[in-house]
Design goal:
Blueprint (H helix, E strand, L loop, with lengths): L1 E6 L6 H13 L7 E6 L6 H7 L4 E5 L9 H14 L4 E5 L6 H12 L4 E7 L3 H7 L1 H6 L6 E5 L6 H13 L5 E4 L8 H15 L6
Parallel strand pairs: 1-4, 1-5, 2-3, 2-4, 5-6, 6-7
Helix pairs in contact: 3-4
């Protein structure tokens, strides 16, 4: 089971990216089975209703943020998915309050499952978020594999350059791509991310 974790603040575009990523993966040779795990803090998951309507299998974790108070629910949820579906791919969309690398650490330490981590950053709001929550914003970028700098079409040239420079200053050995919200995400981006997930999945016992 190959795993990709998607992180990013609320409104960064995680669900939009997730739907395009799921469509890309299901279109790979052999039509791989994809299960999506949503972490919604609340009683009703709005995103999962949209995703289920697109014919993907969707499971939810409601108890809390899956990188902290909901970690047990995350582990149990992944175990259930592996048992009930045994999918080729698991895509995990974390809440905007989560630290994606912590989700990865939990899965690796408890279940021996490694993953690829993608963080989605809203270029139009990043500098304001950094000013409001400087430490937490940087923590979302820790130990990730790829950054998508989204909504570049809504950002002026100076703001985009400043946001990109700030993100790059806080990530190492990390792929960074700029994405226009008005255009589909290029397949080469998803191809790179999927290859990273496949590579990481070989590092540990995923049975």
């Amino acid at each position: 089971m190959k795993i990709i974790i998607l992180g990013g603040f609320l409104g960064s575009g995680k669900t939009t990216v997730l739907m395009q990523l799921a469509k890309y993966i299901t279109g790979l040779d052999g039509s791989p089975q994809v299960v999506i795990l949503e972490n919604e803090i609340g009683e009703v998951g709005v995103d999962d209703q949209l995703l289920a309507g697109a014919s993907y299998t969707v499971e939810n974790v409601f108890a809390g943020c899956i990188c902290c108070s909901g970690a047990v629910d995350l582990v149990n949820g992944v175990k259930k998915i592996a048992r009930d579906y045994d999918p080729d791919w698991l895509l995990i969309e974390s809440t905007g309050m989560a630290v994606p690398s912590s989700v990865r650490t939990t899965l690796k330490d408890v279940l021996g499952l490694d993953s690829a981590v993608l963080c989605i950053v809203d270029a139009n709001r990043w500098l304001r978020i950094r000013k409001a929550s400087p430490d937490f914003a940087v923590r979302q970028l820790e130990k990730i594999d790829m950054v998508l700098l989204t909504k570049i079409d809504k950002t002026d040239a100076a703001g985009l350059a400043e946001s990109e420079a700030d993100v790059k200053a806080n990530v190492k050995n990390t792929e960074l791509y700029k994405v226009n919200a008005l255009l589909p995400i290029g397949e080469e981006i998803f191809r790179t991310l999927a290859a990273k997930a496949a590579e990481n999945g070989k590092l540990t016992d995923t049975d």
